[in-house]
Amino acid sequence: MTDFSELEDRLARVAVEYAANIQPDQVVIVNCDYGQHGLARAVARHAYRRGARFVDVQYFDPHLKRARIEHAAEETLDYVPPWYGQRVLEVDELAGARISLSGSTSPGLLDDLDPRRLSRDLLPRVKESFEVINRGRVNWLVLPGPTEGWARQVFPDDPEPLARLWEQIAHVCRLDENDPVEAWRERFAVTADVGARLTALRLDAVHFEGPGTDLTVGLFPSSLWENARDRTKRGVEFVANLPSEELTATPDPARTEGVVRSTRPLVLSDGTLIDGIEVRFEEGRAVSVEAETGGDALQGRTSMDEGARRLGEVALVDRDGRIGPLGTVFYDTLIDENAASHLAFGGAYESLVGEEDVGKINRSGLHLDFMIGSDEVDVTGIAADGTRVPVLRGGTWQV
C-alpha cells in the first residue's frame, strides 16, 4: 500500500503554519471523520510544534449515524447533546482555532435509509459553528482529507484511486510548488485585485443566466467581494478554505428572484449525495426546492429554520484557478465550490457588509453551498440605475 504520510505532512504544515495560522498557546479543535486520522495526526504534530496549548481531535463516524437513523426513536433524531454546541462556544471563548477536514469517508453509506428520518439528523453539523464564525475570534480552516472511500467515489475506474486523488489534491492545494505558501499569496493577490474592482462597482445585484438558470441576486449597498483571506478581531490573519479560488459577497436576503439549476453535485457533511438541484425564488425566499437525487434530504436541511430558505452567500469563481481545468467532480463542496460560482442557503457572513447592513443579513443555523456556475453561465452585474456590466463570460473575468 502506498504511503501518503509525506503528502499528509506537507498539507498539514501549510494548513497549520499558513492557512489556519495557529498561534502559540492556542487551543486547537480538529474535526474529521473516522478514517482521516493520518492527516489529523499530522495537523496535531505541526500545531504542537507551533506552540499550541492543546489539540483536541473529534472524530465523526458515519456508521454510528447510520445506526441511529435505523434504530433510534423518531422523536429523538433531531436531538443534539448540549456539549456538542458548548464545545464550539468554549473554543470561541478561548479565542482558539478550528481545523475541519472535508471529504466523505463512506460515500453512499446512508443512501438506502428513509430520507425523511435522515433529514432530521443534521450531524456532524452543529448550528453554533456559524455563529462562532461571525463572532470573529476564532481562526478557522476547512481543508480536504483524502481517504480510500472518497477516492473510489471520484475515480471509480482507477486501479489506484487514492494515489490519483492525492495527486490532484496536491495540485489544487499547490503542494507541487517549491513554496506552496508563496504560490497561495500570489493567487490571493490576483483574486483580491478582482474583488476590489467588483466592490468598487457598487453593484445592486448580479444576474446569472445559463441552461436552466435565470436568477437575480440582490446585494446590499455595502456588500464587499472578498477572497478566503480573513483576520480575527485580535489581528490573526488566516485563510478559511484551502484550496480557495472564490470571491464571496453577502446578498440581501429579501431580493433574490428567479430560477436556478445546479451544475455540480452537492455532498452533505454526512456523505448524502444531492444532484440536479432546481430552486425557484420569490422575494428572496426559495418557494420551490427540488432535486433529482436526494431531494428529501435537501428539503429537510432547508426547512430547519426561517432563514434556511434564503441566501446567505453568493460567490463567483473564474476558470483560471487550478480546480475547474481538471474537469474532475470531487463530490466535496470545499473543492467543487471553488471550481464553479455558487450560492449558499442560510447564514451570512457579517464581515462582508458594512456595519449599517449587519442587522439586515440572513440568519440561520444552516450554511449550505451549492454550485450553479459553469462556462455556459453568464454573470452580469446590475447597477442601481439598471446599467448592466459583464462580470463573467465563459468563465473569464470581464472587470
> Secondary-structure element sequence?
HEHEHHEHHEHHHEEEEEEEEEHEHEEEEE
**Biggest sheet record:** 9 strands, antiparallel
What's the total number of strands?
A: 19
Count the domains.
Answer: 2
- Principal-axis shape equals globular
Task: Output mean pLDDT.
Answer: 96
Q: Low-confidence spans: pLDDT under 50, at least 5 residues?
A: none
Beta content comes to 25-35%
Q: Please state the CA-atom Rg, rounded to the nearest Å.
A: 20 Å
Structural class by sheet pairing and helices: alpha+beta
The separation of the N and C termini measures 48 Å
Count up the helices. Answer: 11
Helix share of residues? 25-40%
What is the compact description of this entry?
By secondary structure, the chain is an alpha+beta fold. It has 11 helices and 19 strands. A hairpin with a 5-residue loop joins strand 11 and strand 12.
Describe this structure in words.
The protein has 399 residues and is an alpha+beta fold. It folds into 2 domains: 5-143, 3-Layer(aba) Sandwich (Thermophilic metalloprotease-like); 180-397, no CATH class. It is 29% helix and 27% strand. It has 11 helices and 19 strands. The chain has helices spanning 5-19, 37-49, 62-71, 82-93, 115-118, 128-135, 148-154, 161-172, 180-201, 295-301, 333-336, and strands at 27-33, 54-60, 97-102, 139-144, 205-210, 213-219, 229-231, 237-239, 247-249, 251-261, 266-267, 273-282, 285-293, 311-316, 342-346, 367-371, 378-382, 388-393, 396-397. The strands form 4 sheets. Strands 5, 6, 10, 11, 12, 13, 17, 18 and 19 form a 9-stranded antiparallel β-sheet that branches. A hairpin with a 2-residue loop joins strand 5 (205-210) and strand 6. Helix 1 (5-19) crosses helix 2 (37-49). The chain is globular and about 55 Å long.
